[in-house]
Write a structure and sequence with these properties.
single chain, alpha+beta, 3 helices, 8 strands, 23% helix
Length: 165
């Protein structure tokens, strides 16, 4: 028996080919970076070079930032500037204010130009009083300790119970 092809059958085969190519082209892609033309120009994000190994203070983009906690709610920028300029050149001072109450939130960020100035401020002003209230100082940015190597493969932790047989 011979296969008979009609004109309508050719149209049907072309429609199936078109449908198959559309399905292949319309596969679902989720998330960023699937090749949709949204890659960054350099292909890699910029980062700051790390100084030293292990945990410790980390330099910000512009300088060394110290966080001051326990700041009195009625403190002014001039009070903080006067107190912390004793230890070195204060490059920037950021004192956050509560919008609702108008009082200070209780912390400040003080940026020093050099590591030595910031370290001197932490050592000498930590625990000192400002406006009758003790303040604490520490590094705002700290390098994390090197993470241990992750285990690869295998199923660890909570496993499933065996299926009944």
């Amino acid at each position: 028996m011979a296969l008979q092809v009609h004109a309508d059958d050719d149209d049907m085969l072309e429609e199936e080919d078109v449908a198959a190519s559309l399905k292949a082209a319309a596969s679902k892609r989720k998330g960023r970076g699937f090749g949709g033309g949204q890659e960054s120009a350099g292909g890699k994000y910029e980062s700051l070079p790390t100084e030293g190994k292990g945990p410790g203070p980390q330099r910000s983009v512009e300088g060394w930032i110290v966080i001051v906690t326990g700041v009195h709610e009625e403190a002014q920028e001039s009070d903080l500037y006067d107190k912390f300029s004793e230890f070195g050149t204060v490059r920037n001072l950021h004192l956050n204010q509560d919008r609702r109450t108008g009082y200070m939130k209780g912390y400040a960020l003080v940026e020093y130009e050099t590591f030595n100035d910031a370290e001197k401020a932490i050592k000498e002003a930590n625990g000192s009083e400002m406006l009758g209230q003790p303040v604490s100082l520490d590094w705002a940015f700290v390098r994390a300790p090197d993470a241990p190597a992750k285990r690869v493969g295998g199923r660890r932790g909570r496993g499933r119970s065996p299926s009944p047989r």
